[in-house]
Amino acid sequence: MNINDAFLNKFERFGKQYDFLNSNVRILIGFSGGPDSLAMTTAFLKLRSKYSLFIACAHINYHLREADSNDDEKFVKEYCFNNNIPLYLHDVKEDISDSIQVKAREIRLSFFRKLKKMYKLNYIALGHHAQDQSETILHRFIRGAGFTGLSGMNAVNNDVIHPVLNFSKDEILSFLEYNKLTARTDLTNLTNKYTRNKIRNELIPYLKKEFNPNIEQRLVEYGILFNLSENYFKHQAKKEFKRAVIIKNNSDIILDINYLNSCFDILKFYIFKEAWIALTGKDKDFYSIHYNDIVDLLESAGGYKELFLPENIKIMRDYQYLIFRNTQTYQSPIKEENRELTGIRNIFTFNDRRFSMQKLKQLPEEGVNLGYEQVIVDLDKIIFPITLRYKNDGDKFIPLGMTNFKKLKNFFIDEKIPKIEREFIVIFTDAEKIFWISGCRLDHRVAVTEETKNFLVIKLENLGDFKNRSAERKTKKRG
C-alpha cells in the first residue's frame, strides 16, 4: 500500500470511529495553507465523491506577517479554485498584536460559526495533528490543568472536528510529498516568543533526546486515557447531579449538602462543574482552584457563608444547602403584601403557599402533633384579625415548650434554618402577637390545653421551592 492510500485509509477509519465521515456530510475546513490544513483538505477532496461530501474552505488573513500573509491567501485561493472548492475569506482590519493567540482564536471561531449557520453545515474541521496534541497536553500540564485539560483536544467537540489529530507530522509531510504538494510555512512558529513555541522547539526535543524518543506518542496516549476518564466522570456526575439537586432554574441551582457528602471527591468536582455549566453555558474556565474554594466553603465553621467565582457566579453555603447563583440573571422573588384575615377562611393562598383552616369542637384522633405542616391552636386565644406576613427585624415569640420570649433571628439560627429559606417563611400574627412560624414552631400562648373548647387546624399545603427539604427536617416534628 502506497503512502497516499495508507493515509486515506487511516483518515477514513478515524472519521468512521468518531462518526464525522458519513454520506452527505457538509464540512467547513479551516484552511490556513500550512501543511496540516493542506493535508486535511486534500484528504477530504479525495474522499468527496465517495461520500458525496460538501466541503468548503474558510481562510482568515490577520495581516500579521506582512507580505507572507497575503501570499498565504493567494495560495489558498489558487488551491480552492483549481479543485472547485467554495472559499470564504475574512480580512481582519483590527490590530490584534496585543493578544494574538486569544483574539485570533475568537475571530476564527466566530467567523467559522457564522458560516456554519449561514450555509447549514455540519462540522468545522481544524487541522491539529498528534504533535499539536502533545504540545497542548504539556502546555496545560505546566499550567496546572486537571483531567479536563490533560485530555487535550477531542477528536470531536460538538461541531468542531480534528480529522488529522492521530497523524504525526512526518505522516502529513510524506502524504503531501507523495501528492507533489508544497504547503505554506509560517516562520513565526520557529520563534520562541510564545510558550507554546518554546514547548515545541525546546522542551519536546529535549525530552525526546534526554528521556524518551517517543514522548510525543506517549503524551497522546495519556491524553486518550485522560479523555476516557473525563468522559466517565462526566457521565457519572450527571446522574449524581440530578440526585443532589433540590432546586434548578435559570439563575439558581441548590444542592443537598448531605447528599454531596456521600459522593467521592472526584465526583463532587464534576457535580460542581455541572452546576457551573448550567448557569454560565460554558464548558470551560472551571478549574481545581474553584473546586478547592467551594470545598473550603463547605468545610468552614459557622452557618451562612459565601464566595464569588468568575462569570458572575456566587456560591452560598446555607446549612444543608449549597447554592450556585448567577447574579446577573437572578431576580429576587416578588413578595406579596401582608394578608389580613378577619375570620376563618377555608382555603387561601399567600404567594406560593396554600393554606387551609378548619374549626373543630374536639381534637382529631391523632392528637395535636400533626407534623410541621399542620398545627392545632386554641381558637379562643386568637384575637382577630389574623395577619400573614414575612419576618421583620426584632420579631420575637414564645416557642412552644418555653415560657420566655425568643428572638425570631435566634430561633432560626438555633434551628439551623437556612438563610435563603428564612426570607420566605410565612409568619402568622393576631392583633397582639406572633402565634405561628409556619412550618417551624407554634407559639406557647395559643397551645391547646385541657381547657380548650374550640380548636383551629391550620394546614400548610405547599412550601413552593422549598417543599423538597431534606429528609431529616421533614421527619422532625414541630408543634
Condensed summary:
The protein is α+β, with helices and mostly antiparallel strands. It has helices at 3-17, 35-51, 67-82, 100-118, 130-143, 147-150, 169-178, 195-210, 215-244, 257-260, 265-280, 288-299, 408-414, 419-422, 471-474; strands spanning 26-30, 54-61, 87-91, 123-125, 156-157, 160-161, 245-248, 252-256, 305-309, 313-318, 321-326, 339-341, 347-350, 353-360, 374-378, 386-389, 396-397, 406-407, 427-429, 434-437, 441-442, 455-460. It contains 15 helices and 22 strands.
The overall pLDDT average reads 88
| Percentage of β-strand residues | 15-25%
Low-confidence sequence ranges: 465-479
What is the helix fraction of residues, given as a range? 25-40%
List keywords for this structure.
single chain; 479 residues; alpha+beta; Rossmann fold; Uridine Diphospho-n-acetylenolpyruvylglucosamine Reductase, domain 3; 3 domains; 6-stranded mixed beta sheet; 5-stranded antiparallel beta sheet; 15 helices; 22 strands; 39% helix; elongated; disordered C terminus
